[in-house]
Design a protein that fits this description.
By secondary structure, the chain is of the alpha/beta class. Helices cover 41% and strands 18% of the residues. It contains 10 helices and 9 strands. Helix 8 links the parallel strand 8 and strand 9.
């Protein structure tokens, strides 16, 4: 009969170890008008440091489809830090209640409260750009000629120009969808403020990060801050992972 207490003790130790296992997975969700390929420099740093990186390529056709695409990746990622850029802040706030998610990192991103939409947040504190225009079929894009300045002003011009012609249009209806979950209210959150962001007003980013009590860093740079400052962005992600791994 002595074996039962011993087995229970071993089980308890095992479960405790699993609960505090190192978080070595990072799931990245790209924002509107871009795709996941721009995260290569950040992914290279994270992989060099021993992390496994997953990049969600959501369709941007409906908010529900984007959240579903993210959840599919979370189903197989294991314990992770969930990262969202720009519009993807809406996605990770909704999908971040997934049990795999240990913490969230918002990179020049929306950080909504329950019941808020991206469009309403933009109206609260409008951005500097005026270059988002219809792309046809109910989708929106950034004017290609304005893209380098408004989206990626501190990125190498050839790269910014290619991003402009390869951008992913987003359904206009997405900006009116109200989130039903604010995962940052349940789990630790971190935020990167891009000081020269022209796509989301930096003051709006500051307001949202303060409200969420996110641990925040500010970096001088454009909306594409993950491209122009990959080391700083990767460092904050790794900090989130280390904190999530602590007992």
């Amino acid at each position: 009969m002595k074996t039962l207490p011993l087995a229970l003790t071993i089980l308890g130790i095992t479960l405790t170890s699993l609960a505090h296992a190192a978080v070595k997975n990072v799931v990245v969700v790209h924002g509107a008008f871009a795709d996941g390929s721009g995260w290569k420099s950040v992914a290279d740093i994270l992989e060099h440091d021993g992390y496994t990186v997953y990049v969600v390529q959501e369709p941007e056709t409906t908010f529900e489809a984007d959240v579903a695409a993210t959840r599919l990746v979370l189903d197989r990622s294991g314990p992770c830090v969930l990262v969202g850029h720009s519009y993807a802040g809406m996605i990770i706030s909704e999908a971040g209640d997934h049990p795999s998610v240990r913490s969230l990192v918002y990179v020049a991103a929306f950080e909504p409260e329950v019941g808020e939409s991206a469009g309403a947040l933009q109206s609260k504190n409008p951005p500097a750009n005026h270059s988002v225009v219809p792309a046809g079929g109910g989708f929106l894009q950034v004017k290609p000629e304005a893209f380098p300045e408004d989206f990626a002003a501190d990125v190498a011009k050839p790269v910014a120009n290619f991003m402009a012609i390869s951008q992913v249009p987003i359904s206009s209806e997405i900006f009116d969808v109200k989130v039903k979950v604010a995962a940052w209210s349940q789990k630790p959150s971190y935020a990167v403020i891009a000081r020269q962001d022209r796509m989301i007003n930096p003051d709006l980013e500051r307001f949202m990060s303060r409200r969420a009590k996110s641990e925040t860093i500010e970096i001088p740079g454009s909306h594409a801050i993950y491209l122009s400052h990959p080391k700083e962005v990767a460092s904050l992600i790794e900090k989130a992972a280390r904190a999530a791994s602590s007992p």
